[in-house]
From TrEMBL, chain B:
Name of the protein in its database record: 3-oxoacid CoA-transferase subunit B
Family: Belongs to the 3-oxoacid CoA-transferase subunit B family.
GO molecular function annotation: CoA-transferase activity
Keywords: Transferase
Entry-linked Gene3D superfamilies: Glutaconate Coenzyme A-transferase
Length: 221, 219
């Protein structure tokens, strides 16, 4: 079995300037805080970040957005709880593409599921529709939302085995299982790392085949 | 019951029926849960991945892994379920949510409304609102009748970026219950402390007065 467990220091070699990164989590629940710290410490710049929201001050994406030049573009559904994101957006220093939360989820799912996009009525007649195609199916109009993929997905699992199989507790799932499917390289932050077989197969929500590397959430070096 | 938000939340709660699956928006709509009687069974959905959501947690009783879509720590009821965001919005878009309640910045006489952006000022983003109004069987707007500065919220044409086109069924404010119909806005109920004329003064489109106009909470 390939050793997937790496340290925070080894992780930094995987980050490069101008990458597209998906980051799991909703607010700071299911958010890979240690992996986000590693991005900051690595000094990479110019990232396109895809995440549901920009968390609240001092946590999650705030740690990236508050550093000059780390995030070049943010794709998210909600930025209202982190005033810094809105301020930077209004100043013109941080372009933000707002996507309805359900469409964001499905675009990422499509990216990971080999689909050419999804058709939804969400956003019809709004600014979300700009530059997107309308497709009529049996007389009903839909918006074509294209798939989203990333170079790296950074996700968080409550219980992770050494193969990378993941179980999520509570509401920590959110975008994590979707992002695990939609990136070339997937790194999971494991809150609890266990031996293979310790998670019952019916409780595995993200299969280990999708996970390239594991970093423990208490890992500080 | 003088607080206008309490009046709104309490009146919205009366729209919710036994067995309904309900999603409450962030802020004022969240208060609706406090006014649902124990005699009816309501399944609360939170778009970050819960069916069977309970109340917000008291300090010290939080589970760090369980929040609602408004970033608050919440309890879950027996028989609850957690799921990912794609499943959550399949439930929402797929028509499996009976009622959604949300706030607005502006709404017009066709039920077109704005809630996600004041360009150059406040830009919270739409979150799940656009999907919720597209998929829920009944869309209720819970809002104060006018803006904080007294300006009108219920207007002839929405001026802010549109969140959804013609998707609202009912507007509930501290002054009135207004139904959105193809003919226009129908005033169905008014607060006992106001008059039709006062409600109209604070509403830009001409209100159609229901033949069965009632006083709020009169039943």
């Amino acid at each position: 079995m390939k050793e997937k467990l790496i340290t925070k220091k080894e992780l930094k070699k995987l980050f490069h300037d101008n990458m597209t990164m998906m980051i799991g989590g909703f607010a700071s629940v299911g958010t890979p805080e240690v992996l986000i710290d590693a991005i900051v410490e690595s000094g990479v710049k110019g990232l396109t970040v895809i995440s549901n929201d920009s968390t609240h001050p001092e946590q999650g994406l705030w740690k990236l957005i508050s550093k000059e030049g780390v995030v070049a573009k943010l794709i998210a559904s909600h930025i209202g709880m982190n005033p810094l994101t809105g301020t930077k957006m209004n100043e013109g220093t941080l372009p933000v593409e707002l996507i309805p939360q359900g469409s964001l989820a499905e675009k990422i799912r499509a990216g990971g599921a080999g689909l050419g996009g999804i058709l939804t009525q969400t956003g019809l007649g709004t600014e979300v529709e700009e530059e997107k195609e309308r497709i009529t199916v049996d007389g009903v109009e839909f918006l074509l939302e294209k798939p989203l993929r990333a170079d790296i997905a950074l996700i968080r699992g409550s219980i992770v085995d050494k193969k990378g199989n993941i179980m999520y507790k509570g509401t920590t799932q959110n975008f994590n299982p979707l992002m695990a499917m939609a990136a070339d390289l997937v790194i999971v932050e494991a809150e609890d790392l266990v031996e293979v077989g310790a998670i019952e197969p019916e409780n595995v929500r993200t299969p280990g085949i999708l996970v390239n590397y594991i970093v423990r959430s208490e890992c500080h070096e | 019951m003088n607080n206008e938000k309490e009046i709104i939340a309490r009146r919205v709660a009366m729209e919710i029926e036994d067995g309904n699956v309900v999603n409450l928006g962030i802020g004022l709509p969240e208060m609706v849960a406090n006014y649902i009687p124990d005699t009816i069974d309501v399944e609360f959905q939170a778009e970050n991945g819960i069916l069977g959501m309970g109340g917000t947690c008291k300090a010290g009783e939080e589970n760090k892994d369980v929040i609602n879509a408004g970033f608050k720590y919440v309890q879950v009821k027996k028989g609850a379920m957690f799921f990912d965001s794609a499943t959550s919005f399949a439930i929402i878009r797929g028509g499996h949510v009976d009622v959604t309640v949300l706030g607005v910045l502006e709404i017009d006489e066709t039920g077109t409304f704005a809630s996600h952006k004041i360009p150059g000022k406040k830009v919270p983003g739409m979150g799940g609102a656009m999907d919720l109004v597209m998929g829920a069987k009944k869309v209720i707007v819970a809002t104060t009748h006018t803006k904080k500065d007294g300006g009108k919220k219920i207007i002839k044409k929405v001026s802010l970026p549109i969140t959804a086109v013609s998707k609202v069924d009912l507007i509930i404010t501290e002054l009135a219950v207004i139904r959105v119909t193809e003919q226009g806005l129908v005033l169905e109920e008014i607060n006992e402390n106001t008059t039709i004329e006062k409600v109209q003064e604070r509403t830009e489109p001409k209100l159609i007065i229901s033949k069965n106009l009632k006083v709020m909470f009169s039943e």
